[in-house]
Amino acid sequence: MKHKDKVAVITGAARGIGRACAERFLAEGAKVVLGDLDAKRLKETADEIGPADRVLAVVTDVSRKAAVDALVAAAADRFGRVDIMVNNAGIAMIKDFLDITEADYDKVLGVNLKGAFLGVQAAARQMIAQGRGGVIVNMSSINSGLANPRVATYAISKGGMNQVTSTAAVAFAPHGIRVVGVGPGTILTEMVEGSFIDSEETRRMILSRTPIGRCGSPAEVASVVSFLASADASYITGETIYPDGGRRVLNYVVPVKE
Fold first, then answer.
1. Average per-residue pLDDT for the chain
2. How far apart are alpha carbons 25 and 158 in whole angstroms?
3. CB–CB of 86/142 below 8 Å?
4. Is the pTM of this model over 0.90?
5. Is the model's pLDDT at 195 over the cut of 90?
6. Residue 231: is it exposed, middle or buried by C-beta count within 10 angstroms (0-12/13-18/19+)?
7. What is the CA angle 14-190-188, rounded to 5?
8. 104 φ/ψ angles, rounded to the nearest 5 degrees
9. Using CB atoms within 10 A of its CB, is residue 195 exposed (0-12), middle (13-18) or buried (19+)?
10. Given the DSSP bridges, would you call strands 55-59 and 84-87 parallel, antiparallel or unpaired?
11. CB 4 within 8 A of CB 28
12. Cβ-contact 1, 29 below 8 angstroms
């Protein structure tokens, strides 16, 4: 098992990609600490995915520094250390660019960008104190580098996250801490189906630009996260890997069969 006896902290872990990551780490021998703002769903997930001696659930608002620090502290208190941090919590909203309010902007960037930044800080401080390195994974998106005005705040937050990943990777390399990103394409989660895929027309448009010809699954993203967090990726840091079915590399003149 590639993560035997490691301790992985995952935000946004009550559903979707976060839950899939927790399930993958558990299957590979790790103990997991789940952070999420949805207390009811978080408890249900924790009860469903594994035994109580290997799973800890902590209600967490990642936009608040005290809450993120408390999540990492709870992991260290319960399991003795933190080896892996997955900053996965994220939200999205569809709005025309000029309709985005200051509150909208602050809400999305507070969770997606500030939350990841705070998670990197908290995890790095704990890992440095432990003196044995670690891995931090930030959940980005293909929208970090693609202009999509319908989800402007989301795209802006993910673009910023890529810089969090690269700058933190350089900052913490001397401590043996790797910082990497994962930028999924269209993955069938509740958030995606409730925001990005808001019509059959949108679904067909996405698939027409996806060479593999389908949307991805949370488990497929979790497999990339697991790899990057493992010793198999020991020489990778500062990079964001894109499990996107080929969307980012597609030239628009190339037809895609749906």
1. 95
2. 24
3. no
4. yes
5. no
6. exposed
7. 110
8. -60, -50
9. middle
10. unpaired
11. yes
12. yes
> pLDDT (tens digit, 9 = 90+) per residue, 115-166?
999 999 999 999 999 999 999 999 999 999 998 898 999 999 999 999 999 9
The Cβ of residue 128 has, within 10 Å, a number of other Cβ atoms equal to 16
Residue 207 and residue 118: Cα distance in Å, rounded?
34
Nearest CA to 6 out of 140, 220, 17, 22 is that of 22
Are 3 and 84 within 8 A, CB to CB? yes
Taking the CA atoms of residue 121, residue 123, residue 127 and residue 129 in that order, the dihedral angle to the nearest 10 degrees is: 60
What gap in Å lies between CA 136 and CA 142, rounded to an integer?
A: 19
Distance between CA atoms of residues 46 and 218, nearest Å: 17
User: Phi-psi region for residue 137, left (φ > 0), alpha (ψ -120 to 50) or beta?
Assistant: beta
**Sequential DSSP letters for 162-215:** HHHHHHHHHHHGGGTEEEEEE---SB--HHHHHTT--SHHHHHHHHTT-TT-S-
Pick the closest to residue 126 from 187, 90, 79 (CA basis).
Answer: 79
Q: What pLDDT does 202 receive?
A: 79
**Which pLDDT score, from 0 to 100, does residue 203 have?**
80
Domains of the chain and any CATH numbers:
7-249 (3.40.50.720)
Active-site amino acid positions: 141, 154, 158
